[in-house]
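Support request from a user on the community tier.

User writes: "When I paste my structure tokens into the form, the page sometimes reloads and wipes my input. The last time it worked, I copied everything first. Here is what I submitted, just in case something in the input itself triggers the reload:"
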């Protein structure tokens, strides 16, 4: 009864879902709310939460959309992505980039709706699938090395190393096109080298407390979390200085440090041969904003080789501008600030909501309660160690509280055991 009082009744909240949607839209103009219903109720409630999260200018979480659906399948993902596409003005020819954990149904839905989109697969989930048959720390490092390197020659060498280490694992990984999981094969149009969907995982972890709540309570938990998150980002932005976001500034400063150690050879036009301390040599083309190491091409933040070429150009009397001026606009501090100018306005309590004139009342789908206590904890990987918060009693000798002899406890005490420690 107390839980029902605090969180609301599961069934009754479906009946006022339309009024909740109307209140949201009236207080936050431009908000998209879609309610799709079936004539015959089916499936469990409160359902599954789908989320779409973007990268902001600081490589942080920027939640874009969320939905509660009956289950995660191709139909629900298609419905969700159709509305996401409408809001973001995406169509079948849009050059968008999606990164996912290859959840059931999502790949087919993306391919159906956005065939021109670039699809990346979270490398952590790819390895999690691999380690069901092939595992080991050395193998994990080899797989991540294949994904992390930025150019194809290094990728080929990393794959050869993996093949020598475990031919079966190499064969398994080779069946997944490298364009989906390896930086060396990314097109560069997304302006990020991200290999995982950790941002989605982080966002979803924040919603754990909402998952088993009634539908409006769940939706309100998410809305209030997003409201607080925007305010927290504002606090960070108020302290920022310079022309770039915090993360972009850190990356660029590290690249500047490395650039000072490089040797540069200019060809008299727009190209530079840049050699590092370990004799790794790359070609930089400032006119095309590219380097054969491909870091600049993929992230749109000048790599150490490009910065070394810029320094050489300035030392020879040519105007070049600071390295910050060569960073993509998406990483500018002004862009980051503009992203968070929109705030989420508060809403009234239920008694103040507008009344819907729709003649039908929404009913919850049929709920089939599973046997046992609902599971809320994250499902562990097969080989993930269990971290206990209890102290181990292994190798400890039990002392009886009655006779103070060792080797037994008070419940089994018959005066047996080792010598007494009582004085």
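"...and here is what came back when it finally went through:"
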């Amino acid at each position: 009864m107390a839980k029902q009082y605090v969180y609301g009744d599961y069934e009754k909240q479906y009946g006022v879902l339309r009024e909740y949607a109307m209140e949201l839209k009236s207080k936050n103009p431009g908000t998209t709310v879609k309610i799709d219903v079936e004539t015959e109720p089916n499936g469990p409630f409160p359902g599954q939460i789908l989320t779409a999260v973007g990268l902001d200018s600081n490589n942080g979480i920027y939640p874009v959309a969320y939905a509660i659906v009956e289950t995660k399948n191709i139909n629900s993902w298609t419905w969700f992505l159709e509305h996401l596409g409408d809001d973001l003005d995406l169509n079948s020819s849009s050059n968008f980039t999606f990164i996912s954990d290859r959840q059931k149904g999502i790949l087919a839905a993306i391919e159906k709706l956005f065939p021109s989109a670039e699809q990346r697969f979270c490398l952590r989930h790819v390895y999690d699938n691999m380690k069901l048959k092939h595992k080991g720390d050395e193998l994990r490092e080899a797989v991540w090395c294949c994904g992390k390197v930025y150019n194809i020659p290094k990728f080929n060498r990393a794959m050869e190393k993996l093949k020598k280490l475990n031919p079966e694992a190499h064969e398994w990984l080779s069946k997944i096109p490298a364009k989906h999981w390896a930086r060396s094969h990314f097109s560069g149009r997304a302006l990020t080298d991200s290999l995982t969907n950790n941002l989605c995982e982080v966002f979803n972890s924040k919603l754990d407390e909402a998952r088993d709540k009634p539908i409006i309570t769940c939706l309100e938990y998410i809305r209030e979390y997003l409201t607080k998150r925007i305010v927290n980002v504002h606090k960070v932005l108020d302290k920022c200085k310079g022309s770039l976001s915090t993360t972009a500034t850190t990356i660029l400063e590290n690249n500047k440090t490395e650039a000072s150690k490089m040797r540069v050879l200019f060809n008299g036009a727009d190209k530079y041969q840049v050699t590092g301390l370990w004799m790794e040599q790359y070609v930089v083309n400032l006119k095309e904003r590219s380097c054969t190491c491909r870091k600049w091409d993929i992230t749109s933040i000048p790599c150490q080789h490009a910065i070394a070429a810029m320094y050489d150009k300035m030392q020879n009397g040519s105007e070049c501008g600071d390295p910050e001026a060569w960073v993509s606009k998406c990483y500018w501090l002004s862009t980051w600030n503009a992203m968070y100018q929109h705030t989420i306005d508060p809403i009234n309590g239920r008694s103040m909501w507008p009344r819907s004139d729709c003649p039908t009342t929404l009913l919850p789908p049929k709920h089939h309660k599973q046997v046992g206590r609902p599971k809320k904890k994250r499902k562990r990987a097969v080989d993930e160690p269990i971290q206990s918060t209890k102290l181990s009693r292994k190798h400890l000798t039990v002392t009886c509280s009655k006779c103070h002899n060792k080797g037994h406890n008070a419940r089994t005490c018959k005066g047996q055991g080792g010598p007494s420690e009582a004085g």
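Agent notes: The reload is a front-end session timeout and is unrelated to the input. Confidence is low (pLDDT under 50) at residues 380-395, 419-423. The first helix runs from residue 2 to 7. Escalated to web team.
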